[in-house]
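Example for tutorial group B:
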């Protein structure tokens, strides 16, 4: 049975808490339905914060494979309109866990370890690319190689990303990252430019054309890195480089979904083990706010981000889409596929309504 954990404060967050207002606002709980808000955000179990208008966006969800490598954006990027390719779809093509081999890159990180634990608990085979494969044993214990494979690799080094690493891989979840500001995690030049841009580019370039979906964890604010308060967080380029990584994914020709997280809460659980990971909960922050258009400002539990990544693998209408995600107090979709589908679908609908 899942239990609530007390977590130590996270001290090396890429997004400083002080530069953002505490959003979304807290408002009374209402019944647990998927709700639409005029602000263009979809959420479960909680009324959406109001007052967020949305800008126009444009769409390009079917780019050709590696047709255009991204160049450094030097101005604030206008967000794209995201049209749902199948807004009424209720059927998904891939639901058999045994048919998947999910490559997780960044599986030793806060979101990544929750992704891996969740895949293991669902009997979905996973392969990890880790700079230090030993970390897998301390985090996930000794696992059957049929269920969990670990290979050594650094995404900054294209020569590390050998074709054999990708054999049999059906899906990819990339949740690599480093700190936004200089820290020990930059040691050895592991900077946002190297990880969020070059690393993502190298990884995506190495993926086989057979990959059914690549999920990239990115950040809210990437389209506004020249605007306050985002420009503060972008002092060392993290948002700019994340946007470049996003653009490369969008243009790679593979089916993709991008999940832009708000400030991350809960974990990382680096001093814990698999049993603890599997018991971790998002505490009271289980209600999920999903939006499109880079308008959401707020926090999200790492557990919720991990779940969104795993759900998106199987929900066809998330293909070619970019979402922003927050979590707030209240009950949420948990691991219910239908509820997640509704959330994603309503995010599309609201985005289209906001621009019609
Ligand atoms: N923290 C926030 O508030 C926030 C907000 C929005 C978005 N995000 C983004 O959300 C994602 C997940 O965040 P998180 O806090 O869960 O991540 P995290 O704990 O910082 O983990 C980062 C992961 O990336 C791996 N990694 C770093 N450099 C690598 C490299 N050169 N090659 C291969 N792997 C490398 C790390 O592996 P090692 O174990 O080898 O270091 C680790 O597994 C990141 O992209 C982050 O930028 C974070």
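The residue assignment follows.
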């Amino acid at each position: 049975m899942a239990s609530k954990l007390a977590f130590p404060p996270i001290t090396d967050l890429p997004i400083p808490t002080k530069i953002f207002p505490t959003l979304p606002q807290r408002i009374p709980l209402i019944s647990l339905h998927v709700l639409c808000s005029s602000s263009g955000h979809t959420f479960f179990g909680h009324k959406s914060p109001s007052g967020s208008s949305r800008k126009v966006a444009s769409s390009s969800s079917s780019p050709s494979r590696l047709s255009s490598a991204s160049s450094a954006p030097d101005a604030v990027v206008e967000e794209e309109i995201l049209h749902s390719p199948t807004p009424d779809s209720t059927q998904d093509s891939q639901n058999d866990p045994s048919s998947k081999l999910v490559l997780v890159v960044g599986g030793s990180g806060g979101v990544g370890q929750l992704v891996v634990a969740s895949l293991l608990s669902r009997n979905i085979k996973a392969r990890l690319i880790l700079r230090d494969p030993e970390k897998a044993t301390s985090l996930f214990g000794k696992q059957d190689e049929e269920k969990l494979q670990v290979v050594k690799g650094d995404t900054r080094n294209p020569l590390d990303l050998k074709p054999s690493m990708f054999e049999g891989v059906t899906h990819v979840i990339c949740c690599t990252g480093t700190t936004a500001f200089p820290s020990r995690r930059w040691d050895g030049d592991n900077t946002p430019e190297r990880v969020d841009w070059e690393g993502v580019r190298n990884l995506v370039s190495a993926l086989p054309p057979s990959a059914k979906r690549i999920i990239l964890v990115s950040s809210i604010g990437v389209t506004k890195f020249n605007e306050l308060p985002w420009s503060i967080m972008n002092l060392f380029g993290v948002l700019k480089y994340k946007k470049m990584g996003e653009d490369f994914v969008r243009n790679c020709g593979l089916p993709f979904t991008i999940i832009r997280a708000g400030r991350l809460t809960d974990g990382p659980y680096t001093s814990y083990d698999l049993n603890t990971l599997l018991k971790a909960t998002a505490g009271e922050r289980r209600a999920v706010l999903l939006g499109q258009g880079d308008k959401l400002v707020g926090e999200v539990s790492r557990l919720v981000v991990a779940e969104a990544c795993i759900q998106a693998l199987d929900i066809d209408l998330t293909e070619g889409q970019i979402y922003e995600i927050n979590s707030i107090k209240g009950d949420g979709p948990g691991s219910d596929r239908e509820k997640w589908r509704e959330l994603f679908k309503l995010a599309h609908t609201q985005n289209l309504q906001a621009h019609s």
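The mean pLDDT is 79. Compare this with the pattern of hydrophobic and polar residues in the output above.
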